[in-house]
Amino acid sequence: MLSETDIDRIIEMAWEDRTPFDAITAQFGVSEAEVIALMRKEMKATSFRMWRARVQGRATKHVMLRTESLNDDSRFKCTRQRSVSNNKISKRK
Length: 93
Fold this sequence. Notes:
The chain is an all-alpha fold. It is 45% helix and 0% strand.
């Protein structure tokens, strides 16, 4: 079962245009269909419809629709960003 913190993070990641569903699956073990069901349950109906219309068929949310791979150097990635499973910013020394 997902904790409240996990649910909040999944919703946050689903709202982000650049975060693919595959990243959510890798980090939380939740499929795209489960994310959609979670969003439908946790959000207002109007917010859900707006989100659904925005992400449906969007290349940035579906890795298979992207023209470049996730590891392509042409895509911006913050130097402080870690791998998907450990994406917290480390403390600076």
